[in-house]
Amino acid sequence: MKAYLTRRYLFSASHRLHSDAMSAEENRSIYGKCNNPHGHGHNYRLEVTVSGQVDPSTGMVCNLVDLDGFVEREVLSRYDLENLNTLQEFAKSVPTTENLCVEIFEILQRGFSQAHLERVRIEETMMNSFEYSGAAELQK
Amino acid sequence: MVYLTRKAEFSASHYYHNPDFTPEENRRIFGKCNNANGHGHNYTLEVTVKGEVDPRSGFVVDLKQLKEVMHREVLDAMDHRFLNKEVPEFLTQIPTTENLAIAIWERLETKLEQAQLHRIRVYETPDLFVDFYGEN
């Protein structure tokens, strides 16, 4: 039996949306308040969905301790209470929540092997959320 | 095709234990969840059904009937119960959220009269949930 398990996490970080490819005026016009040079922060809600056969001996898709440990070590400790613009992965790309979704998906895709990664979803605020399911989109 | 989701809540206790494992393996794999005295959760169940909208009633499913089936098949059996000891499926299976979603699917699938079951989602806590779509 194939099941999908979703776990939610919280981290807080600051960012500034600014692209060197655009003029100061274009940046202000496109990013609005998010272009404030001093940055601003969010409490990000991260949802990680993995799938797989339910192991009859444990009743689990994967052990939550392994997923929590991986996310804590590789994602939360990297992003929580950081300024995203100062991190290497955003040296050349804008730390929008779209790009953050892709980065976190790729971290999980590369390193978490105990279950199949289906989707990463991030709520930037209660009003905005973003999802990435890799190259082949989830059709559910 | 229209999808309709009905939510319900139930509270139950459980623990994780596989009699084929040694006590040490059980403790290592299941951690705190292996405490034989059990612990509890407030579960939130979401049942999603799908179907064509009946042109006469404008319904995908009669919500009253869906609610009754959910009560009879799931909530009456699981609410305020110790899942390992009082729910037949879990005399032989470990009552993880994964197995709970599968058991609820199997209890409901053949009991729905109008619409087709699409998804069972079980929240163990607001930060952990499992989806089951009836896939093998």
Q: Describe it for me?
A:
The complex is a heterodimer of chains A (140) and B (136). By secondary structure, chain A is of the alpha+beta class. Chain A has helices at residues 24-31, 64-79, 97-111, and strands at residues 2-15, 40-53, 82-83, 116-123, 129-132. In chain A, strands 3-1-2-4-5 form a 5-stranded mixed beta sheet. In chain A, a hairpin with a 5-residue loop joins strand 4 and strand 5 (129-132). In chain A, helix 2 (64-79) crosses helix 3 (97-111). Chain B has 5 helices and 5 strands. The two termini of chain B are 23 Å apart. Chain B is elongated and about 60 Å long. In chain B, strand 4 and strand 5 form a beta hairpin. Strand 1 of chain A pairs antiparallel with strand 5 of chain B, so a sheet runs across the interface.
Please render the helix and strand layout as text.
The complex is a heterodimer of chains A (140) and B (136).
Chain A: E1 2-15, H1 24-31, E2 40-53, H2 64-79, E3 82-83, H3 97-111, E4 116-123, E5 129-132
Parallel strand pairs in A: 1-3
Antiparallel strand pairs in A: 1-2, 2-4, 4-5
Helix pairs in contact in A: 2-3
Chain B: E1 2-14, H1 23-30, E2 39-51, H2 63-78, E3 81-82, H3 83-86, H4 89-92, H5 97-109, E4 116-125, E5 128-132
Parallel strand pairs in B: 1-3
Antiparallel strand pairs in B: 1-2, 2-4, 4-5
The largest sheet of chain B has its strands arranged as 3-1-2-4-5
What overall geometry of chain B do the principal axes of the alpha carbons give?
A: elongated
Specify the number of helices of chain B.
Answer: 5
Radius of gyration of chain B: 16 Å
CATH architecture of chain B: 2-Layer Sandwich
Element-by-element helix/strand order of chain B: EHEHEHHHEE
Task: Describe the sheet with the most strands of chain A.
Answer: 5 strands, mixed
Largest sheet of chain B: 5 strands, mixed
Largest interface: A-B, 20 and 26 residues
CATH C-level class of chain B = Alpha Beta
Indicate the CATH topology of chain B: Tetrahydropterin Synthase, Chain A
Number of domains of chain B: 1
Strand composition percent of chain B: 25-35%
Order of strands across the main sheet of chain A: 3-1-2-4-5
| Cα gyration radius of chain A (Å) | 17 Å
Helix-residue proportion of chain B = 25-40%
The secondary-structure class of chain B comes to: alpha+beta
How many DSSP E strands of chain A?
Answer: 5
- Structural class by secondary-structure content of chain A: alpha+beta
Distance between the termini of chain B: 23 Å
Indicate the low-confidence ranges of chain A by residue numbers: none
